[in-house]
Design brief:
binds ligand C2E, eight-stranded mixed beta barrel, 13 helices, binds magnesium ion, globular, two-stranded antiparallel ribbon
């Protein structure tokens, strides 16, 4: 049953010590519990750039858990566990609160950062208080709702009834919705149209498949989404060649190691400041909350 958090039963070397899979899984479990109890879930940011101008326009917030022995633990190790134990609701709330607190800092408001994407797990989407809780945090920190983009996967759409009512309330408050990981599952256009998404993120695997064996599927998909009025983000952009080809296919935004890896918030701030054309501008009061 701990399968989800044990990537392999092979010994894992951490700081000169060997942990077997089970010990590793227990260490992850403890680290998750501790981070949630101590409000110590970290949030990293990865820039998202405009494919045409190459300017940073947004960022995706990605959770990390820091452990003294293990270092930063990746979400693939603790998200499934948090979903299984139910602590994903609290984890998601912490991530959302930390993003809002960061966005409300005066120095961050001076950056030309149009929005931040925040991931929502299908389990969080089943919480009937989700909209209420998010809206009250957003209001507390006075973050304009249009700067908050929530990423959900197709898996979440399966529970359409609970979700639609939550989404309607958050849309009304000014939040935007993004479909994450398109092309990784059963992806169908009809489903996509049941939620008022503004942006579709193409899964890394789907994007990569095109570059190992080019055909018309990727450009055709991009074309179809653009015609339906969605903007498109390609994930996993790791080279200049990929960035150029995706721009030629009219992909709107690009995200990937070619630009930057996810980094701690403070590093992200420095990155934004040092990046060409991303200097701070005169502060304009962000008082419109919607
Ligand atoms: P995702 O939402 O699809 O996030 C994109 C993942 O791709 C991130 O992995 C990011 O580090 C990685 N990535 C970005 N560009 C590249 C690239 O060029 N090459 C490669 N190889 N990878 C790239 P990460 O941070 O490990 O997160 C994995 C998944 O965990 C996320 O996938 C998301 O589904 C989930 N996750 C992360 N943070 C949260 C959170 O706060 N809440 C929830 N519910 N899920 C989260
Ligand atoms: Mg995502
Ligand atoms: Mg994704
Ligand atoms: Mg993904």
């Amino acid at each position: 049953q701990d399968q989800a958090v044990v990537p392999s039963q092979m010994p894992i070397r951490v700081d000169g010590q060997y942990f077997d899979g089970l010990r590793h899984a227990r260490a992850v479990k403890r680290a998750l519990k501790r981070a949630i109890a101590k409000d110590d879930v970290s949030v990293f940011f990865q820039p998202i750039v405009d494919a045409h101008t190459q300017k940073i326009v947004g960022a995706e917030a990605l959770a990390r858990i820091y452990d003294e022995k293990l270092g930063y633990i990746a979400p693939s190790e603790f998200i499934p566990l948090a979903e299984k134990t139910g602590s994903i609701t609290e984890l998601g709330m912490q991530v959302f609160r930390k993003v809002c607190a960061f966005m409300s800092e005066p120095r961050i408001r001076m950056l030309q950062l149009d929005w931040v994407n925040i991931n929502l797990s299908p389990i969080q989407c089943m919480n009937p208080h989700l909209a209420e809780d998010f809206i009250s945090i957003q209001q507390k920190y006075q973050v304009p709702a249009h700067k908050l983009h929530l990423e959900i996967t197709e898996e979440s759409i399966i529970n359409l009834n609970t979700l639609q009512n939550q989404i309607a309330r958050m849309r009304e408050a000014g939040f935007s919705f993004v479909l994450d990981d398109y092309g990784s599952g059963y992806s169908n256009l009809m489903m996509v149209r049941q939620i008022p998404f503004i942006n579709i993120k193409l899964d890394m695997g789907f994007v990569r498949a095109h570059f190992s064996q080019p055909n018309t599927l990727l450009p055709d998909t991009i074309r179809a989404f653009l015609e339906l009025g969605f903007s498109i983000t390609a994930e996993g952009v790791e080279s200049e060649a990929m960035a150029l080809a995706l721009d030629r296919m009219d992909t709107t935004y690009l995200q990937g190691f070619h630009y930057a890896r996810p980094m701690p918030m403070e590093d992200f701030y420095q990155y934004m400041r040092s990046h060409a054309g991303q200097e701070t501008r005169e502060e304009v009061p962000d008082c419109d909350l919607a």
